Amino acid sequence: MAADTHRLPEGGRIDRSRPLRFCFDGRDYTGFAGDTLASALLANGVRIAARSFKYHRPRGIMGAGVEEPAVLVELEGDAASGNRPATTVPLTDGLVARSVNTWPSAAFDLGAVNQLLARFIPAGFYYKTFKWPNWHLYEPAIRRAAGLAAAPTEPPKGAYEARHAHADILIAGAGPAGLMAALVAGRAGARVVIADEGTEAGGSLLNRRLKIGGKPAMDWVAAAVAELAMMKNVTHLQNATVWAYREHNLMMVHERAPENPALLGRNWRVRAGQVITATGAIERMMVFEGNDRPGVMLASAAQAYVNRWAVQPGRRAVIFTNNDSAYAVAADLAQAGIGIAALIDSRDDIPAHARALVPGVEVLAGHAVTSVQGNRRVRAITASPIRGGAARRLPCDLFAVSGGWNPAVHLYSQSRSRIVWDEALSSFTPGDPAQPVRAAGAANGVFELGPVLAEGAAKANAALGRASQVVEVPKADDAPYTISPLWTAPGAGAKAFLDIQNDVTVADIELALREGYSNIEHVKRYTTGGMGIDQGKTGNVNIIGAVAEQQGKAPEEVGVTTFRPPYTPVEFGAIAGRRAGPVVLPYRHTPLTGWHKDHGAVMYEAGARWRRPGYYPRPGESFQDTVNREARCVREGVGIYDGAPLGKYEIKGPDAGAFLDWIYTNVMSSLKLGDGRYGLMLTDDGLILDDGVSFRLAGDRFFMSTSTGNADAVGQHMERLLQIERPDWRVKITNVTGQWANATICGPKAREVVAAIGTDIDLSPDAFPFMTFRDGRIADLPARIARVSFTGELSFEVNVRPRDLPALWDAAMKAGAPFGITPVGSEANHVLRVEKGFLSLGHEVDGTVDAHDLGMSWVMSKKKPDYLGKRSVDLRRSAGRPRRELVGIRPLDPNRQVPEGAPLTPGGRKEATEGFVTACVWSVVENRWLGLALLTDGRARIGGRAHVRLPDAVIEVELCPPVFHDPKGERLRS
Amino acid sequence: MVYDVTITRLPMRALFDLTGSREMLSQCCGDLLPPFSAQPNRMSESGGRRLMSTGPDHWLLMAPLDDEAALAAALQPEGAPQDIAITGLSDTLTFFAVTGREVQEVMAVASPLDLHPASFPADAATWAEAFGIKALIRRIDDGFEIAIDRSYADWFEDVLKRVVV
After folding, report:
1. Is A182:A236 a contact under the CB 8 Å cutoff?
2. N or C: which end of chain A has fewer CB within 10 A?
3. Is the pTM of this model over 0.90?
4. Among partner residues B91, B155, B156, which is closest to A738 by beta-carbon distance?
5. Could you report the predicted ipTM of this complex, rounded to two decimals?
């Protein structure tokens, strides 16, 4: 067990009465409740905690929060997860963690051999190097070598939740500005959601020794949190990151430890009237040779470790800065007993208020660090005057650096609001908003505590619509902030890291610029700078500054890359919530689902989430045996299938007929009462949207059926047309898909079976011909029977109320038993429709063909002056280009199946396709494989041959008309 | 159990979809209907029948299933005037009652609808979304009633129970 050697004897926000054991890289350690894994490792003197992504350079902890660029860990056990910044992992008893991308450990990593090859693998090397014979040959090995943690192999033991919420004001961040805003908004009675990424509220106040109202700032935080907790109109989420800003102020919040113990995590989708981003600011690295050595740490992080976690990250420190904030850090480190060797400031002129904070510390003004000594950890640094002069070597084991502060504008930018360069701050700050959003506090470039509190209150008032109202805020003392940027120190090159996580150096940026990638977006993609899990929180602005230096431009001329969600990594489980596993996608059942399952049907989705029986295998039958049996039964006897999912609409009104004439390619308004007609519906651009049969129920009422898969799309299509294109038309549409279920009885013996069930409808062909419907009773149930056919056989589509369908089905099975009635699944239906040459959306209708291509010119009315899509079809065909047309195919080898979707190429050669096979089935009427295909100029080639090209074979097929059964339609009209 | 909530699949009820102006519907249906609510997405109730405003010139009449035949006979959907449509839809929806101490928690998971009493008062009723599918939501004693397309009922109940348990 390693000793807790770097823990201060007192102080910090840890609970020393609750020691916790944990394991890192195979070694056991102890920490305390309130620690993060990072603070506990530092307390135990662990310096090398990671290896870098590409070069496997030793890395230590550099940050104290979500900005951490260097140390990612993989958690094991029940908390298994990968690529977690050690700074964001709360320490728990028994925690087991290991460094990622190392073997066997971070301290001793065989992958470190990559450092010897570093000069050969600069940015973009793999784009140039691994091109022959194929990048994908090398890709797996490269990804393994430069990888991150693997995803856990087991699903998490517990549940996640995704939920919705609404707020008048959402406040991102519970630091001083966020808490102040929440207090003002909450007291005004607004519905407030305040979410903060930290395990406790306070933001930067947790890490600093400041006072508010003359008392420790954390006392004010505690009082604010307590007051908010008493407000029923306020939802305060802690350990919850606002990770995405979507349209219309829809905010995503990832809550990592919900109060409900049954939940592992939760994602909130908050619709907010107003948003206040009080997300604080993130400190930048300084860029110099060796700035990634273990022991180099952000100054603010060092401050956090001594103040919040009572940890000495080193015994003797040097501080390197270009701004004022590091002076308070030096003071706090000295207070914690850390020797301050020197404070190096790149500025020549240092404000008196800064110097006043460190009266006993040597300050080297106008200096920069040019090198770091020590291989596995910092042992000393060398500083030189920027304008020339003697270098000084300063021994130290902690090198705290501050390159200035970037307002955390990520969310603000995600809202599509502008961010602008602020010369005084040398960073980007929020500009004009694109949505109802305001930035407050450090996120808005205000860094002094007093003004931060005042701005939190003011922004809340503005969000409440009372901008002129002044709220008294407590007084707070803080030092001013000034900066003079130093983007890269003299000599910074191949080991001066701009993006620590992705191993992107100053030399890489120079290379990208030399190779012509001058746009900042191109620099980003070429070097991968800012594309790591940390999204370049500590490095992006430095990259912009370095590019600006190289190009001789101002940073604002270089511009900024796009901020994209997530702000910090989000667990997939939280996004999915309970919609995982068997319920991840909706499924729909018909009233007969139970029956189908009870009778052995193999069920699967068959469009629009409906689970339908595919086939009903009997013992000993193969799949093909079953399908053949069911299909033969329909061809030779009688079958029955569950047609409940078919889409159905009632169209009513004085303009209903005209409306149908407009949306269908043929004429529907001429239908006589009780008659039906097949129709084809086109989109505006002339492509086939759907097909179906419409019946006339009354003078102003029609009953329309649609395909199962497009039922909802057709409904939306019709509503859109009526509401937008024809708002003056008097038409009402009602979706009655769920009000009518049907059992379709089909086959030569169908009439006898329907009669045997018992009906008051005259079933004779003359009284009840094809393409008509009759209302009546069957099996003593109210029914609407339609004579339509999808199988090519005599068919009765018996529509009843869904509540009556099981009774109807039972009656049909009982009455049909003497006729050998058989339930038929969608597989056999597919065979039957292919034999008959009926089209199926998604097979023959592929988004390119029109009715003429399918041999259905008869359905394109020549009587009507216009209909939806007509002009587009005419326009497209006027080009006279060859079209793919529907043909039948018979493989020369009758026993050779052709995969559906297989391409047809000239002679089967490796050439551009001239079509593809839309369907191929074993035909029960021809006892062979046959199918349908779309083929260029196909109709003219009927009688000839074509070739199906497969990866391992060429199949020659004979081209024939696309109807293999009853081409005159005598059977279905019988 | 994650949440203290009871989920109950409710029996079928009579449903009629009514489209048309309230004046024409009043004229056509007379006192068969509860009074029309003045505001959109509100529900009125009378004699065991509820009338929900579900859209512009769009209403849903709800009644006990025992009342279905009588209502159909009285409303005469087939004989309705040209500019109104009355369609029986009793079989289209399945209703669930979600009730209990933590019903708000479950509803927050189920639906993006703002159910705060200020936004969704006691007589509110509206088509919205629950678990990504279209759902009719209204307040009931101690909770909410959610109606969804009947075909989704098994899946919907499965998801609801996973949220609760």
Report:
1. yes
2. N
3. yes
4. B91
5. 0.97
